[in-house]
Amino acid sequence: MMADKVRTRFAPSPTGTVHLGSLRTALFAWLWARHAEGDFVLRIEDTDTKRFDPDSVAGIMEGLRWLGLDWDEGPDIGGPFGPYTQSERGALYRDHAQRLLSSDKSYRCFCSPERLQRLRQEQRAAKRQPQYDGACRHLSHDESAARAAVGEPFTIRLRLPAQAQITFHDVIRGDITVAASTLQDPILVKSDGMAVYHLAAVVDDHRMHISHVLRGEEWIATAPYHVLLYEAFGWDTPAWVHLPVILNPDGKGKMSKRHQGERHLPVNVQDFMTAGVLPDAMFNFLSLLGWTPDASKELFTRQELIDRFELAMISPAAAKMPYAKLEWMNGEYVRRLSSQAFRSVSTPFLARAFGKSETAVDQMAGLDYVLPEIQTRVKTLREVAPWLSWAFKSAADMEYTPIDMLIGRQLDARQSAETLEVCQAMLEEAVPFEPKVLQALFRVAAQEQDMKLGSLLGPVRGAISGAKVSPPLFEMMAALGRRECQARIHRAHTALVAEDVARS
Questions:
Q1: How far apart are CA 52 and CA 345, in angstroms?
Q2: Residue pair 117/70 in contact by the 8 Å Cβ criterion
Q3: Is 254 annotated in the active site?
Q4: pLDDT number for residue 253
Q5: What is the spatial distance between Cα 239 and Cα 169, in angstroms, rounded to a whole number?
Q6: Nearest Cα to 438, choosing from 425, 446, 429, 448?
Q7: 18 CB neighbour count, 10 Å cutoff
């Protein structure tokens, strides 16, 4: 019977990480359940024992939790229709398979894998579509039972009805009609007794009262089999919603793992997590990948997306993966974070990048001077670390290559070294050692030396950061503290003196 309320499910196969397309399927199913004040179910479809990855289930749950998709029923929390892992529901599938055998809606197939392989080869050689020829379809009940009784291996196939066409309705695509001549009697139970996807998914969706089945459009080809299974059992069908595929950025083929030059393009949820995409940004971005609630805006709160979500508004057309849009959107969400929140989400990335513990990074109070400046410049959290390499070094680790990074505009090596001497002594006057105080002192020093401020700051910036591009100088200096800044300036001065001698 149909569910009394909206009940959706995400039913991944634990064979690896969650692909972006699957994550969007989960998100849309979750949005529809929350919009309708219904239930969202997590079910693990692990009947493919050859490809089963025992670590995948934890990865699936981690990805869903990262995106903020909570489930009302699932393997870890249970529910009224459990268990929620298909390998634990074998007896249920066998019972339903027997019901189909008893009603002559299915039959045992004793064809060996070798015979089926030869059949496919012959059909391809004759330029025909490879499909099962129904060799066991007309076996009598007595012969079928006798062969099974003596232990002859068999599969169970659905007996397709003799009809010319099969039509089913898709919420976003309308009526879809498939010619029965393009189908073959599908296997429902393998020779080892394990139910395949067709039988297990249909039985579970019915028993779990799933009202709407959201899945990728690649499953449209299997929908006729599922419709016929529902008919064979005498059950009402759920609402079908086949979501469009996500294409590669160039529009050529379904999005897959690839590289653009030296740049890795993420495709799995863990890729996006590692890349430093914020969950709220990914939630917003994925929601708009195939669905447009309001063409006049791009940024929505979660509640706004829940309130506006409608299945009928999903576009059936495939779309290119707009990585640039995701980066832009993530940057917008990064800048919306409070300073404290930005530091909190950046800490794990800094710890990994520089081989520190998160506790050690947390204790670096000086970072508070520079992180707000970096927050306005980055689009992903992985971009934070390159801006802060200087902060995780000591003066003894600083290398000034090329030496030109220490030479100020319109200055030579000797003049730049003299400039550093002036600045070294001046740092003792900075009380407290904070950006505004440092900035005022350096302005006075530039006037006293009859120099442009930029020329004065150039050698100091190089000495402090060891790079041509860095956060604002005075914030970096405040972050490092007086003694570390003096040690770096001294080291840079020594390098410049040696360079001046070499060039003389």
A1: 33
A2: no
A3: no
A4: 81
A5: 8
A6: 429
A7: 24
Q: Which of 5, 105, 127, 257 is catalytic?
A: 257
Angle of CA points 228, 200, 32, to nearest 5°: 85
Q: What pLDDT score was predicted for residue 254?
A: 82
Structure tokens at 196: 């395949």
Q: Which of 143, 142, 120, 146 is nearest to 131 (CA)?
A: 120
Phi and psi, residue 78, nearest 5°? 75, -160
Amino acid at site 85: T
Which residue reads 């001294």 in tokens?
Answer: 490
**Torsion over CA of 367, 368, 374 and 375, rounded to 10 degrees?**
140
pLDDT value at residue 494? 94
Walking along the chain (504 residues) 10 residues at a time, the average pLDDT comes out as: 80 91 97 98 90 89 97 97 96 97 96 95 92 94 96 96 90 94 92 94 98 96 95 97 92 67 73 96 97 94 98 93 95 97 98 97 96 97 96 94 91 92 93 96 93 93 91 97 96 91 74
- What does the alpha-carbon distance between residue 156 and residue 98 come to, in Å, rounded to a whole number? 9
- The torsion angles phi and psi of 300, rounded to 5 degrees, stand at -130, 150
At residue 265, the 3 state secondary structure works out as strand
Q: What DSSP element (H or E) covers 170?
A: strand 165-170
pLDDT score recorded for residue 241: 98
Burial 362-394 (b: 16+ CB within 10 A, else e): eebebbebbbeebbeebbbbbbbbebbebbbbe
* CA dist., res. 6 & res. 72, Å (int): 12
165-170 sheet: strands from edge to edge: 174-179, 165-170, 239-243, 212-216
* Helix, coil or strand: residue 16: coil
On whether the CB atoms of residues 309 and 293 are closer than 8 A, the answer is yes
Q: Tell me the β-bridge partners of 42.
A: 10
Is the pTM above the cut of 0.85?
yes
User: Hey, CA dihedral for 375, 379, 381, 384, is it positive or negative?
Assistant: negative
100: nearest Cα among 151, 159, 148, 144: 159
- The whole-angstrom separation of Cα 45 and Cα 28 is 19
Distance CA 417, CA 426 (A): 14
What whole-number distance in Å separates Cα of residue 388 and Cα of residue 372? 12
Distance (Å, whole) CA 463 – CA 484: 11
Residue 334: phi, psi to the nearest 5? -60, -45
CA 103 centroid distance within chain? 45
Hey, is 130 helix, strand or coil? Answer: coil
Q: Are 243 and 318 in contact (CB under 8 A)?
A: no
Strand pairing partners for 157? Answer: 107, 187
Q: Which of 475, 454, 459 is nearest to 421 (CA)?
A: 459
